[in-house]
Write a structure and sequence with these properties.
About 75% of the residues lie in helices and about 0% in strands. The longest helix is centred in the last third of the chain and has 34 residues. About 5% of the residues have low confidence.
């Protein structure tokens, strides 16, 4: 995600959050519009049932409106929405018996068939390297895949990721460092350079 765009998104979201807290329903609607695509994309990493994810997103916004008086004024809006959706998906999955009480949510690796990858890597040799990149990403743990997604696909900082994943900032830094080190060690210098390029472009 472009840094300037991300900064503008945060500023607009902060202003809309203040208006929403003051009781403006239109502000909540605009927040929903701004973050809908990101939330839907994030949600589909946990379940491929689009209607289920859309229902969870709708429930998140309904609960926000009902609890607006109890929400903090100084809130990191996007991480808060991501965390709320993450928790909602887990609770609804348990309620609907999609997974056991003690199970963790799955986190699917990013689909490699999208237009970003197609435009990034066009010749046959490079496509084979992209396949290897996605293969190694798919072998990461659920938490490693999620932290890569939040950091590079959504452009979130360590403090925002910590809020979403319920781990401390040092834990985020350690997990991210460990994950990138595993990728580098398994793929070697050339593949690591390709991976860095790929992940950087994913965040823009």
């Amino acid at each position: 995600m472009d840094l300037i765009y991300a900064t503008q998104e945060r500023e607009i979201s902060d202003e809309l959050w203040s208006q929403f807290k003051a009781g403006n329903p239109d502000a909540l609607g605009r927040l929903a519009d701004i973050h809908h695509r990101s939330l839907l994309n994030y949600g589909t990493k946990f379940s491929r049932d689009l209607e289920f994810i859309r229902d969870c997103i709708q429930d998140v916004y309904l609960q926000l409106w009902e609890r607006k008086l109890f929400l903090a004024e100084d809130t990191m809006v996007k991480p808060y929405l991501f965390k709320s959706l993450r928790n909602k998906i887990f609770k609804e999955s348990v309620r609907l018996k999609r997974l056991g009480e003690s199970s963790e949510l799955l986190f699917e690796p990013e689909d490699s068939s999208g237009t970003i990858e197609s435009s990034l890597i066009e010749d046959e040799v490079q496509n084979r390297e992209l396949y290897r990149l996605n293969l190694i990403l798919s072998r990461l743990s659920k938490r490693q895949r999620e932290i890569i997604y939040l950091r590079y696909y959504q452009g979130l900082g360590n403090d925002e990721i910590a809020e979403i994943m319920d781990i401390g900032k040092p834990g985020v830094a350690n997990l991210l460092s460990k994950t990138l080190r595993e990728i580098r060690e398994q793929w070697g210098a050339y593949i690591w350079a390709l991976c860095c390029c790929f992940l950087w472009l994913k965040g823009h």
